[in-house]
Design goal:
The complex is a heterodimer.
Chain A: H1 2-29, H2 36-49, H3 55-81, H4 86-108, E1 113-114, E2 124-127, E3 130-133, H5 134-156, H6 158-168, H7 170-175, H8 180-205, E4 208-209, H9 215-228, H10 233-254, H11 261-275
Chain B: E1 4-13, E2 16-26, E3 31-35, H1 42-50, E4 55-62, E5 65-66, H2 72-78, E6 80-83, H3 95-102, H4 112-122, H5 124-128, H6 139-151, E7 157-161, H7 169-184, E8 188-193, H8 196-202, E9 205-210, E10 213-218, H9 220-224, H10 226-234
Parallel strand pairs in B: 3-8, 3-9, 6-7, 7-8
Antiparallel strand pairs in B: 1-2, 1-4, 4-5, 9-10
Helix pairs in contact in B: 3-6
The chains are: A mainly alpha, B alpha/beta.
Chain lengths: 290, 238
Amino acid sequence: MVQSILDAISLGGLYALAALGLGLVFGVMRLVNFAHGELITIAAYTLVLTVQFPLIVSILITVIVTSLVAFLMELTIYRRLRGVNPAIMLIASFGLSTVLQRVYELIFGALPKSAVVAPFLSGAFSIGGLSITISSVITVVLTVIILLAMGYLVERTSLGLQLRAAAADFKTARLLGVRANRLISAAFVLSGILASCVAFILVIQNPEVNPYYGLNITILALVGIVIGGISSLRGAALGGFIVGVILSALNTLLGNGRVYAYSWLFFAVLIILLVKPGGLLSKGNELERV
Amino acid sequence: MALLEVSNLAAGYGKVEVITDISFSVEPGKSVGIVGPNGVGKSTLLQAIAGGVSASAGSVRLAGLDILGKKPEDIVRLGLSLVPEGRQIFSGLSVKENLALGLTGRKDKKGAGAAIEKMRELFPVLSTHENHQAGMLSGGQQQQLAIARALISEPKVLLLDEPSLGLAPTVIDDVFETLRQIIELGTAVVIVEQRANLITNFADETIIIREGRIQSRLTPADAANSDSLARTYFGAGE
């Protein structure tokens, strides 16, 4: 039971981190970046391929490589398309995602690359006769630390204030002096850092990295930001967390019927959206009074 | 010398030209009003000056520097701020955070504390609601916040798009009294309004726009002649 709760919290936290990365970019560009999954994939490959280095060095290289890919993604593709119809941006992100998957296949091969990134995190310990995996505890601790750091950045810093303002109304934010290029690049770099964090946690749990490694979590994180409230960073994180917890609970509760976990998950999502179409944290104009 | 000089400006959206051949200037401590019916391009004019809409012809000079084609975030740093139509405050952020966003456009970050203090003096009501969510302020208070947020970057030129929109008459008086103080401090102000009599009485010069072009220019003396104003504004007798 304790292990199941830990698993649910850790999966929820993991999805919250992935959703936050997507939410940051959506907030400033109104772009659902499907290629976020490929940031997670390149981060995972980098972790596996730098396993011979001390862990901290491997993590640093991963963060730098992934942030650089995220930055280049914005600079070379999305910046040129800024201002076009959102549907075109969406298709472009689909295209970029597919192209990057093929590029990874060409570079790293179609077969999975595998390595034990942090061997000291494998194994389990017992509390009162209960066996708890070290990786699930570390995942929860890491996720909480990263979410707190992100919370600080978004809520307490000037960059965070600009990100929140841009998410609400980018045009007005620019009229006040918020530098569009700089802010959007910062959002992409931050999403790259978050993708690195997600990849690190994922690789601990599943070290078999293939060209589609980040796809599944990205789709579910997208579901998360929709149910949490697509225009709110808090909503994105909360939605991602809820999706992770529901999925983990379904996997535990359904037993052999876990093949239907996704069906039940999407059923729950539909119910949430029918009750709160704008997402759980949407306020609409409820707080405005003239 | 004029702080803001707009010459033969044309702008619009895509291939549709909304304003054509607009020229006017405003000096420090002076104000220009722009009036006209709905949809004649008043807001487009302000957006084109502030960099929010691309201009297709003409020039806009701010303190002698050509700012046409520059990004809005660069124009605000050069000393021109716009209070957009509908105030566009960030309702989910606190009053304090809205004001802090205004600091983004300041060139001189050292004077930020003094600028915030100055806004507190000019708009005391904002100090008392500093930690409240901006969306919870009344319409008049939101307008004051929008003006304070624009002023905190200490612009040489302040553009306001329909500051009286949705406000009660007494609140409108308060807002215009504040604007009078801002002008007295040396800021050049351009105000777009639909209420011709209000702005003609207030501004040093009022420009009437019809169908995207300047139809006529009025002084406060013309405001006294309501027949003349009505004829000019509504096109009566044409």
